[in-house]
Amino acid sequence: MSSRTSRARGTAERLLVTLTVTMLVSASLGAVWIAVRGGLAFHHLSAARAAMTGAPTDDPLAAAALLRSTADDVAAAHALTDDPIWSAAGSLPWIGPQLTAMARVASATDRAVGALAPLQEMASALSSGSLRTDDGRYDLDLLASWEPGARTAAVALADASAEVSSVDPDDLLEPVAAPLVHARGLLARARDGADALHRTTLLVPGMLGADGTRSYLVVFQNSAEWRSLGGVVGAVAQIDAEDGRLALGAQASSTDFQDTGGEPVADLPEGLRALFDDRPARFVQNVTQVPDFTVGAPIAREMWRRQHGVEVDGVVAVDPVALSYLLRATGPVTLPSGDVLTSENAVPLLLDEVYRRYDDPKRQDAFFQSASAAVFAAVAAGRAEARALVEALDQAARERRLLVWNADPAAQAVLDGTDLQGALPGNDAGRTSFGVHVNDGTGSKMDYYMRLGVATAWCSDATAALRVTLRNEAPDAETLPDYVTGGGAYGVPPGQTLTGVYVYLPRGALIEGRRTTRTGAPTGFSGGDDGGHEVMKWSVLLAPGESATLDLRVATPATPALEARATPTLYAMETPAGGASCADEG
After folding, report:
1. Which pTM value belongs to this model?
2. Local structure of residue 252 (DSSP, 8 states)
């Protein structure tokens, strides 16, 4: 072998050794770099998480404010995890997903915080009560001026929330997964708050008369007699808005509406007629029997036009629980009867005591109208603290106790995808939804004593379970007025309740199994279809103290989220014991 060849081989060997050593040193230095910066980033993220611990789960504006308070820590964590070495290490086994998750949390949260300044301005205005002008009008120009900032915040927070949600916490160690899950929840609440504020700036100025007088029909649901969307319509009122001022117009009881002569005021889709007959289009009491407010609201509008000759611009539905939320913002109001209506006594006074006090249904309706008018007058007069009013409306909307429909398609489109629309739930790649809608068949006000529970669960990648429970907690029927029990007028013994539970399956789902357990009389089933949803009706007769459970198992592709949207009742939705059952049904 020549000396030249030997020298070349030696040079190559030295180069290989040098490269190997360099790589090992670089890897070691990189590991040290990542370890040091990772420790610092983790410290900042932990500090941010500690500051966010205890964030209110029901106040998106407060969540946004809390996020801003962590600005320095999340900015530092972002800077520490945003470099080429960190990015390259993200491809390493095991440690890579941990580093990527930390980087995404830091990046997304930092970007979100940067977009929150407009929300802080709005929150400050709400807290100071500056939503009203000196002459008592709602400041529509101020609301409209917030739209660009609210839009920017909504987009940024939606992007940040999506980025954090794209990381699977199951792949992470607990110290990394915990901040990720916490950030998910907080970003989701802030995102929802920004989205709601943006929609508000787009919709509310017009609804309050920025472009001319607007009129709205408000239907008050009586939740002591269940209907799919909440309760039977007992009283209605027209509210007029012009340049930020609100005025109460004509009021009416459901009994004031003229008989349609058996003819419906609108044609119901064939599937709805099969389920509910044409009652929702003949009686204003039943427009909320249709579980889709975008269908029932136009029917109520047409009934009002025929009764009063006014074609309103939209329809709003509220229930007594929503009124109690508004009373938290306005404070107590005094009724013509001398009663003082508060957030604590609104529901029992309006749905229980009034029936014990007055035998005449017209006097009952008059009392309910006076209560609704008093709450509205307090809101219109500016008695409600602005921040508390927004929180009350937000809670009522999230619980689907406040529903809004606009006749103008452009205004209605602003509400697309929100609970305010009261539309049937749709399915998408991220969510599968059941509908559970209860309707009274007793002809009574006994649902004041009924309890509803709902639970869902995935049983497999292609099977979901739903459990629905009903319980009658009424006292002895002899202690109740006939108007409350129904007096047996529709064939149901006093004290007992007959409930029709309409279960809307996810589109395309098929029932694989069904089972009921109960005390008392047997149950019955029938079915139908509405808008592509298979509908199963479960009829349940319960005496005081009796309960019933329905378990369904259905075939439907699994999605990340599974939910059941149920009729909002007077009480918090119960979680059935044991949750939904995946056991084989008979």
Report:
1. 0.85
2. E
